User: Fold SoxR-reducing system protein RseC from Pantoea osteomyelitidis.
Amino acid sequence: MMREWATVVAWQDGIATLHSEAKTSCSSCSARKGCGSHMLNKLGPKDAHVMQIPSEKPLQPGQRVELGIRESSLLGSALLVYMTPLFGLFVVAGLFQMLFHTDLAAASGALLGGVGGFILAKGISTLFGDREAFQPVILNVALPPDLLRVETEA
Assistant:
């Protein structure tokens, strides 16, 4: 099970709104100038992920919770997102090459197949995304921030 900590933003009627920051390893790596991931992280959104998860226990804002998601659902999602467009790209490019016998047609087919694969992956993910196996669950709940007290000797 993949685990990640998140902060409670709000809790109302058994639904917890959680805030989880996107983590990258770019801050600990020294190969920033020659790394494609570092450049993509600079281009991507800087905001954190906000999600709503059912929670029977009442939670307070600022409280930390540990979330978990199954590896199989994570791998299945990655397979769907990456392989469907790639499969569409190759199949439609090959089909257009066979039908029209030009490289321009193959390139156009590759573009259409890739975009079609993304659209197909999005449609499939909306069908299966609401299943319980693909939803994160709360594994552990930390103490509320107002119960935590630090005493120092002065």
